Amino acid sequence: MVAELGARTSDRGPDLLSCLAGLRAHRGATVVLKFGGNAMVDRELKESFARSAVLLRYAGLRPVVVHGGGPQIDAHLRRIGLRAPFAGGLRVTTPEVADEVRMVLAGQVQRELVGLINAHGPFAVGLTGEDAGTLAAVKRWGRADGRRVDLGRVGEVAEVRTGLLAALLADGRIPVLSSIAPAADRSDGAVYNVNADTAAAAVAGALGADSLLMLTDVPGLYRSWPPQGPPVEQLDADGLARMLPALAGGMAPKAAACLAALRAGVGEVRMLDGRVPGAVLRAFGPDAPGTRVVAGAASGGPASGGVASGGPASGGAASGGPVDEGALLALR
Ligand SMILES: Nc1ncnc2c1ncn2[C@@H]1O[C@H](COP(=O)(O)OP(=O)(O)O)[C@@H](O)[C@H]1O
Ligand SMILES: CC(=O)N[C@@H](CCC(=O)OP(=O)(O)O)C(=O)O
């Protein structure tokens, strides 16, 4: 089994040894991994993502997974004949659609991720924002063509209660959170559909995460869309804020979420191509791919270096435990 895991990733995955130094430097760091539906295009990628999450855990980091599932929701709604168009990158969500979104995210996508991670040991625990009141949401209004749009039961995160997440992390588990949230005023028992980037950013901010890695289906953030050159290697929060008004589609809420995470104190955010096996590990290597967005001035670090260490609440190296290199190499 171990040999099989090694063989499967060695040709296409990153060189683990080159990532070890980066992983070592991040012992004890809380890292939120946002896995988007568009990056979950095949079984091998999902397995690679699960292995990477477990590797981070073995290396003494504290990974938290927040997942989306836009394409999976699309496919399900098509199958049952429900229409739910997007406005400004967010799905217009009737109460009926909200129930289906919850079923697909919590009942299908999350269960699969939990299973893939737990193939390597009893690490993953699935939850939604409903569990232990982890998330609470208020209605979010959309904007399209300069006009305010009623998105129905789409929520923005009003509160994150970190107690359950912190307890799971302290117990060495990997929380896998679906982006569903009850109403902050507990008004009618209904749930809100929260964009998964928004949920990941709120969770990263509330946990005081060192970094937020957003896995998506493009190599990074492009200055113009469709792209006319390579993605932006590095920019700072102010630079991202200046780009926001021109961004469209799914990148609009994603970039806004990145900015919110940085402003909440997350050390850095990376947008990574989740279609590349080993994307998460590569983020800790010497030639980290994707777009790096840092809180302070962008000139602070090497554009191609690994994930920055020492966020506002990194927890210190001591809390991470020793790096279990044997387990790391076995899992690679
Ligand atoms: N400037 C841009 N840079 C990168 N992607 C962009 C940009 N503008 C729009 N996009 C679109 O945003 C998409 C990513 O957002 P989204 O579909 O929500 O991804 P995910 O499901 O991974 O969260 C890309 O596939 C691309 O089509
Ligand atoms: C409000 C809103 O748009 N919610 C998203 C939730 C899932 C999601 O965000 O999935 P990705 O990360 O794969 O895009 C939706 O219904 O598709």
From TrEMBL:
Reaction catalysis annotation: N-acetyl-L-glutamate + ATP = N-acetyl-L-glutamyl 5-phosphate + ADP
Chain residues that bind substrate: 69-70, 91, 193
Keyword vocabulary terms for this entry: Amino-acid biosynthesis, Arginine biosynthesis, ATP-binding, Cytoplasm, Kinase, Nucleotide-binding, Transferase
Primary localisation category: cytoplasm
UniProt biased composition (Gly residues): 298-319
Residues of the Aspartate/glutamate/uridylate kinase domain: 30-271
Site annotation Transition state stabilizer: residues: 34, 254
InterPro entries from the UniProt entry: AceGlu_kinase-like_sf, AcgluKinase_fam, ArgB, Asp/Glu/Uridylate_kinase, Glu/AcGlu_kinase
Any GO molecular function: kinase activity
Regions annotated as coiled coil: none
Region (Disordered): 295-332
EC numbers, comma separated: 2.7.2.8
Root EC class: transferase
Protein's cellular compartments: Cytoplasm
Pathway(s) where this gene product acts: Amino-acid biosynthesis; L-arginine biosynthesis; N(2)-acetyl-L-ornithine from L-glutamate: step 2/4
Any matching Pfam family: AA_kinase
Family: Belongs to the acetylglutamate kinase family. ArgB subfamily.
PANTHER family, alphabetized: N-ACETYLGLUTAMATE SYNTHASE (PTHR23342), N-ACETYLGLUTAMATE SYNTHASE, MITOCHONDRIAL (PTHR23342:SF0)
Physiological role: Catalyzes the ATP-dependent phosphorylation of N-acetyl-L-glutamate.
Protein name listed in UniProt: Acetylglutamate kinase
Organism, as annotated: Kitasatospora saccharophila
